[in-house]
Design a protein that fits this description.
Blueprint (H helix, E strand, L loop, with lengths): L12 E4 L2 H20 L6 E3 L1 H4 L8 E4 L6 H7 L6 E6 L6 E8 L2 E6 L5 H10 L1 E3 H5 L6 E2 L4 E5 L3 E6 L4 H8 L3 H17 L6 E4 L6 H11 L1 H9 L4
Parallel strand pairs: 3-6
Antiparallel strand pairs: 1-10, 2-3, 2-7, 4-5, 4-11, 5-6, 8-9, 9-10
Helix pairs in contact: 6-7, 8-9
């Protein structure tokens, strides 16, 4: 699927959901909850459109664990659901993450090194909701890939442009202005020059532990090795 481009809206607008859209949201949240209940001891969060509510039929179900835990514990909790395992690092400066693909639309992500507060802000930027909030049918504000702030309402959501409202957006999301400015820069730059790819995106063999695979990558890549060292090791 092509990446969604940044759009401009000159004022806020309200989107009212159809019955079909509410049903799609309910189905994706039920799917997320089944997986999150397995991961309950690790404080799992769902993030993105499933947390905000602005889902489409092709929206992903993205779940993350917000702190470093031994990868085998995550795998044990998801026993029978693991389809594919990867190590991902967006750029040489970003968090190193383990990714477990459950199916074509569902992933569980967890840090392989200790995350910084700034790296965790990324999830609040897109909208993140814990398991109890999901059970209470809460929805949270967040920014989509088009750089539009989504604010949930009883009928659907309100959309506001992020560019030019950075301090307001930071306040609503409870994140720093710095992370807002960074994401605006990254997403608008991608529109100008195109996506440059992910720095590390490697499948982990079935017979190898995540931590062992990360050590192999770190041994050959100085940027990964530096990040591991700065984050306190594997």
């Amino acid at each position: 699927m092509p990446r969604e481009k940044v759009v401009r809206i000159w004022d806020e607008r309200e989107v009212v959901y159809s019955r079909e859209r509410w049903a799609t949201l309910r189905a994706k949240r039920e799917k997320a909850l089944v997986i999150m209940e397995r991961l309950g001891e690790f404080d799992p969060h769902v993030y993105g459109s499933v947390a905000r509510g602005d889902v489409r039929r092709d929206s992903d179900v993205d779940i993350f664990v917000p702190y470093r835990v031994p990868a085998y514990l995550v795998e044990l909790a998801l026993e029978g659901l693991v389809r594919r395992r990867k190590i991902v690092m967006a750029t040489p400066w970003h968090l190193i993450k383990g990714v477990i693909e459950v199916d074509e639309e569902t992933t569980v992500t967890f840090p392989l090194v200790n995350p910084t507060d700034r790296e965790l802000e990324f999830y609040r930027w897109g909208g993140a909701l814990d398991m109890e909030g999901l059970k209470r049918r809460e929805r949270v504000p967040g920014v989509n890939k088009k750089l539009i702030l989504i604010i949930p309402t009883e009928r659907g959501h309100i959309e506001r442009e992020v560019v030019g409202r950075e301090p307001e957006v930071a306040r609503i999301l409870g994140v720093s202005v710095d992370i807002v400015m960074e994401r605006v820069h990254v997403l608008t730059r991608r529109d100008r020059i195109g996506r440059t790819g992910i720095y590390v995106d490697e499948e982990v063999p079935d017979w190898m532990a995540f931590e062992e695979a990360l050590k192999v990558i770190a041994d050959r890549d100085p940027n990964v090795r530096r990040k591991v060292r700065e984050a306190g090791g594997i």
